[in-house]
Amino acid sequence: MNKRTLAILMAAMLASRTTQAEETLLAYAGNEIVVSATKTLNSITDAGGSSVTVITEEEIRQSGKPTVIEVIKGSTGIDVASNGGPGSNSSIFLRGADAKYTLVLIDGVPVNDPADGTRSPNLSNLTADNISQIEIVRGPSSFLYGSGASAGIINIITKKAGEKPEAYVGVEGGSYGTYKYYGGANGRQGIVDYSVGFSRLKTDGFSSTDERNRFVNSTGLSFEKDGYENTGFSANVGVKLNDNLKIETVFRHTEASSEYDNPGVDVIGNEQDSEQYSGRLSLKMSYEPLTSTLYYGFSSQDRSYLANGTLSSKYHGYLYEIGWQGDLKAAKNNTVSVGLNTQHELIDQASYGLFASSIDNDMASNAIFLEDQWRIGNLRLVGGVRYEDNEKFGDKTTFRFAPSCGFGDTVVKFSYATGFRAPSLYELYSTYGNEQLKAESSKGWDIGVEQKLSDGLTVGTTYFSTEFDDRIAFDLSTWKYAQVDGRTRTEGLESFVEWRPDAPYTIAVNHTYTYTQDANDQELLRRPKNKIGFSFSWKASDKLRLNANLQWVGSRKDSGARNDEGVVTGKLDSYFLANISASYTLQQNVELYGRIDNLFDEYYEEAWRYATPGRSAYAGVKVTL
Question: Domain of 587?
Fold first, then answer.
C-alpha cells in the first residue's frame, strides 16, 4: 500500500458520516477504564483476554516516586535494570523479553527512540507529573501498534481537565541533595478544557559505578557523585467545537542532564544532555453510529555526550505519524474498528574523534488494521488483523484473538497473537549495520483465570509463552548486526491476590515466574526467574494515609558478576526492598507527604558494577489553590 493510496482511503473515510456519542470515564464505576488494549475506550472486563495492568493517578501519587521508571518497577510481569542512579539508561523487560520488544507510548504516540541502537524505550527522564494513568498491556500487540510491540506496550496518559478548576504548587527534598518544585492547573473555560503541569528536579546523586562493590573499588575510595537535573512541561488541551466535533492536543517536553561513568570505572567529566518532545493533535468527529478520529503525532529526541566539556557524539531521532481510526457501533453489543496510518522515522547521528562516523537515514511504513469486538452475555470476543508495508523489508501481516468468558464469579481468559519488529535504523545503516536484515517475528499466547472469592477479594493466575524468530544480535566475528538462527523463548506464570474490602485499606500481592532461553539455550541476562511484590494502603483517618510496598527479586544472570569469594558466577544476588510513604492533610488545601525508600538499607545491584540507592528519605508539601 503506497502513500498515495493511503491518503485517498483516508479522504474517503473522512468524507463519510462519523461516530458515536462522546465517551465518559464515569461509565464504568469501580472498574478501570483502558484504551490501550483495543484502541477503544473499554473497561478491563470488556477488553477480552488481554492481560492489562492499570496504575492509576492515585496509585502514582501514593507511591511518591518521581519518575515513571520507578513507578512501574513493581508491576506484574515487568523487570527493570538501571545502569546507575537518576537519568541513567534503564532496560525494561516485559515478560522476560528483550527491551527492544516493548513499545512505549505517550498519549498513543510511540516514543521509542529511532536513534537508539535497538530502538529500545528509555523512560529514565520521564517524570510522573501530570499523568492520569499508566496502562501496561502484556503480550504481542503488533496488530494494533505495528513494529516493536512484540512483547507488549506501555501507554502513559496525560491528565485531562477535571470537573472543577484546580491549581496546585509543591516542593519537596531529601537524600542525595535532592530537591523538586512543581505546579499545575486544570479546568474548563467555555469550549476549552485544559490541564498543564511543570516540574524541576535536581539531585547531587551518587556514583553510577558501585563504590560498595569491592571488586570494582578494592581500595575503598569515595567515588565522585553523578548529578542529575530535569525540567519538564506537559499540557492537554481540548476545544469542543460542537456536540459532534472536538479538537484535542497533548504535548510533553523534557530537558535533562546527567553525569555518568564508564562501565565499572569512576570517571569525572562524562555528561549526557538530552531533550525530548512528543505531541499529538487530533480531530474527533462523533456522528452515530460512527466515531472518527484523524490525528497527527510526533516524537523528537536529542542526546549529546560530552567528555570534559568536549562533544564526543550526538544523536537525533524523529518520528511522525498521520492516521485515521473509525469505530463503528455495528450493533448494541458489537464494535468494529478500522485504522489507517503512515509512519516516518529518521536518525541523524555523528561521532567525533578517532572513530568518527555519521548516519543520516530514514524509513517509512504504511498500515491498515481491522478489529472486531463482541459482547454476548458473559462472553467477550476481541480479534483483529493488521497489514503493514515497510519500504525497507516489505509487508508483514499480524493478528490477534483474545476471548474471555465469565462463569459466575470466575473469569477465564485466553489470547493468541503474532508480532514483528523492524530492524532499527542503527542496525541497518551504522558502521556496524547490515542492510540485508529482515524483520524479527514473534508469536505468543496466554491463558488465565480470575476468581472472586468474596466481596473485595480476588485471586488470579495467567500462564504465558512467547517465541521470537529471526532475532537480530551483534555478531562479534564480523562486527556487524546479523540475524540469529534458532528461537528465543520466554514463558512463565503471573499470579495475584487482591483484597479491597469495604474498609479503609487495600492489600495486594503478586508473583511472577519467568523462564527465558535464547537460541543457544542460555538464560537471558538480568531477568529474575522469581519476583514477589506486596503493597498495602491504609486510610488511617480522614487526614492520614499510610502506604507500604515490599519487593523481593530473585537472582539474575549477568555477565562478569562475582560472588562474595570473588568467583565469577555470572549471577547477581537476590534482594529485598521495603518502601514506605505517608500523606497528611494539614488543612483542606495543604498536604504534607513523605517517603522512605529502601528502608532496611539493602545492598543490591540491578546490573553488575552499577550502583543503586541506599536508604533514602524525602518529604514535601503540596498546596492546592
Answer: 3-624
Please count the other Cβ atoms lying within 10 Å of the Cβ belonging to residue 373: 23
Instruction: Return the beta strands (E) in 146-244 as ranges.
Output: 152-158, 166-174, 178-189, 192-203, 228-240
Nearest to 37 by CA among 157, 135, 156: 135
Q: Within a 10 A sphere around the Cβ of 589, how many other Cβ atoms?
A: 12
Is the entire prediction scored with pTM above 0.90?
Answer: yes
Residues 6+ apart with CB under 8 A from 209: 84, 216, 217, 223, 261, 262, 264, 265, 266, 267, 609, 610, 611
How many CB atoms neighbour CB 276 within 10 A? 22
Q: Mean of the pLDDT values across residues 279-297?
A: 97
Cell digits of residue 8:
485517498
pLDDT at 2 (0 to 100): 46
DSSP 8-state secondary structure symbol assigned to residue 100: G
CA distance 328 to 326: 6
Q: CA dist 314 to 226, 275, 319, 351, 578, Å?
A: 20, 12, 17, 7, 39
pLDDT digits (tens, 9 = 90+) for 30-66: 367 889 999 998 888 889 999 999 999 999 998 889 9
Closest CA to 234 of 188, 278, 281, 172: 278
Report which of 366, 480, 361 is spatially closest to residue 425, judged by C-alpha positions: 361
46, 375 Cβ separation under 8 angstroms:
yes
Q: Count the neighbouring beta carbons within 10 Å of the beta carbon of residue 405.
A: 17
Which tens digit of pLDDT belongs to each residue from 128-157? 999 999 999 999 999 999 999 999 999 999
One-letter identity of residue 144: L
Contact 188, 165 (CB under 8 A): yes
User: Phi and psi of 411, rounded to 5°?
Assistant: -120, 130
Tell me what percent of the residues of the chain surpass a pLDDT of 90. 89
Mean pLDDT for the stretch of residues 586-603: 96
Which CATH number covers residue 479? Answer: 2.40.170.20
Nearest to 539 by CA among 580, 577, 582: 582
Average pLDDT, the chain: 92
Query: Number of folded domains in the chain?
Result: 1
SS (H, E, C) 362-377: EEEEEEEEEEEEEEEC
Dist CA 256 CA 612 (whole Å): 20
3-class SS at 425?
helix
- AA letter at 49: G
pLDDT at 74 over 90: no
Which value, in Å, is the radius of gyration of the alpha carbons in the chain?
A: 24
Could you give the C-alpha distances from 602 to 212, 577, 613, in angstroms and in order?
Answer: 12, 7, 9
The residues that bridge with 364 in the sheet, in sequence order, are 344
Q: What one-character-per-residue DSSP string does 1-70 give?
A: --HHHHHHHHHHHHHS---PPPP-GGGGTTS-EESTTTSS-EEGGGGTT-EEEEEEHHHHHHH--SBHHH
CB 70 within 8 A of CB 85: no
Rounded CA gap, 118 and 625, in Å?
45
Residue 154 to residue 570: CA distance in whole angstroms: 30
**Residues 310, 304 contacting (CB under 8 angstroms):** no
| Cα-based distances in Å from 201 to 65, 204, 343, 546, 617 | 12, 11, 33, 25, 16
DSSP lists the bridge partners of residue 67 as: 127
